[in-house]
Amino acid sequence: MTNTAATTIVFLLFPGITQLDFTAPAQALCRMPGAVLSGAAARLDPIATDSGFAILPTHDFASAPQADILCIPGGHGVTEALNDAATIDFVGRQAADARWVTSVCTGAFLLGRAGLLQGKRATTHWGYTHLLPLVGASHQNARVVEDGNVVTSGGVTSGLDFALTLIARLKGDAVAQAIQLAIEYDPAPPFAGGHPDRAPEAVTAGLKARVYDTAAARMEAALRA
Predict the structure, then answer these.
(1) Model confidence pLDDT, tens digit, residues 120-146
(2) Which residue of the set 64, 104, 105, 131 is catalytic?
(3) Can 71 be counted among the known catalytic residues?
(4) Of all residues in the chain, what percent are helix, strand and coil, respectively (each to 5)?
């Protein structure tokens, strides 16, 4: 018999969020029996994403329910959020009573800033994994890393893997498999190059030079501030 007990899932929202870091796991988790999703931000104003459109929070930090599952997405806006005291305080307060504390992509660094990755194995987007020791974590090369009640996932699309992994932990493999089927998550990408371990070296080097060398330097400066 399927366990339908209510599970409160709270996503942190902030300007500059990568929308798929939020919407991909949300799409899977919302189908979990008993799931109640919230998106919490500092204010109830629309949140600008990295995709040219905005999303509306359901709660501000003061009114957000206590999470059973706390999820911290990533995005280039993480660098600003790292030094926002209200955001880090919210993450820490929610995590204290959450059953699961999770992140997608560079959201791991917001967990780290709140002291939640100290001594943990973790992952994040491949362009930033070398920075995990700055928040006390050791990098494990995997799309989803579980260490106690802390679950971190790699870049962007790995949020779906994380969500299905957690659904299986909470509701069983059959429920997770049914949700995977319902959303037709059956990836067959046109190129076998979604990670530096498999991408052509020239493609990886070019992308690092155009985007991630500078972005990682900004992240490092914010972490050291």
Answers:
(1) 999 999 999 999 999 999 999 999 999
(2) 105
(3) no
(4) 40, 20, 40
